[in-house]
Predict the structure.
Amino acid sequence: MKIYKFGGASVKSAEGVKTLASIIKNEDVPIVVVISAMGKTTNMLENVVDSYFNQKPDLISNVATVKNFHKKIVDDLYSRQSNIYRRVAEIFETLETIISQKPSLSYDFEYDRIVSLGEILSTSIVSHYLNEVGINNTFVDIRTCIKSDNNYREGIVDYDLSKELVKSTMTFANTQMYVTQGFIAGTITNQTTTLGREGSDYSAALLASMLNAESVTIWKDVPGVMNADPKLYDKVQIIKRLSYKEAIELSYCGATIIHPKTIKPLKMKKIPLYVKSFINPEKEGSVINDYTERVAMPPIYIHKKNQVLITLTPRDFSFVAEERLSSIFLVLAAYKVKVSLIQTSAISFSLCIDYNQATFNAMVKEFQQSYEVLYNTDVELITIRHYTKDILDKIFAEKTVFVEQRSRQTVRIVVPTN
Ligand code: ASP
Ligand code: MG
């Protein structure tokens, strides 16, 4: 039994859905197909949530954007008679019912029940299409199987309960293929949750671990795990083999190739993770596995954009000791801020964090009660793993470095965005 995961980029058009079909058509073992929302649907639905929750006038046009995008794909895939039109209409009716009512007080709750519809749309369209072209499959609403707590937008999965439900649902008794959603889950009272942006890799890994899959394959619009972003660097190469540890380090540093939570469930069961090109499926790609011997690695460059460097200095000139640190982290946790790097000195504390425009000012205000706050919103964090002296010489000659942290394998610098 295998897991195939298709990200948004691979199902962004009718063409993509057809390629997906041609990839899975040749599979002879039972598979679970995990799919994300089509193209940039999640971002489009985030705009819907924003205008709904804040009762903005662009709500209708934001909904129309999502509708038109899906309508084009459905029109390109199906004849007018297909009953997929009914199903898609039902999903949009669900959305319209939600937005016709006054929002609750919880932004995150509203976010999950709206944004999750992207995955429901994509899987309904794909599952239906596959059945129509003779690739028989069974649709599963994963919210009935993967159960999380009610920490909306970052649901914590109850692994044991979910495993029981997944195993009793995906028995493969009458089917060789299930099609289901990544990224979304349900609470025990059947509210919808999501598992964090780009979380469908994580869903695929959870299902693999729960079902003891022989492998997971993530189909992407890149040829495998690259040592740098080809948009930023001239000479890039595919890293064919990576250990789980290397993969965790990379995703933690901001490599977007796989979601950071993906590796743990796979490592537990030693399940290999293949990263393959959706455009050239016959190419080898990369494999992340339980390699214990040292695998030689090229230098790897990771740019994490959209960061803020923020420095807190206590107003009373006192030390930034443990107690202060824990109160700083409580504020960060309350704003669900992801910290990329920290540096302390006697009387100041610097953090490089993901910039969230919606909440940043409120968070700064809160810090200002006890701290002098300085920040720079125009920075990025560059991580270089397996660096060499030449690389460092070059980078320090070229860039203004605000913060630097160096260990044996890794150097991390915060620099102005150019
Ligand atoms: N559709 C979700 C997102 O864009 C989940 C995913 O793609 O993994 O964040
Ligand atoms: Mg996505």
Observations:
- The pocket of magnesium ion (ligand 2) is lined by residues 7-8, 36, 42, 198 (CB under 6 Å).
- The domain at 2-289 is CATH 3.40.1160.10 (Carbamate kinase).
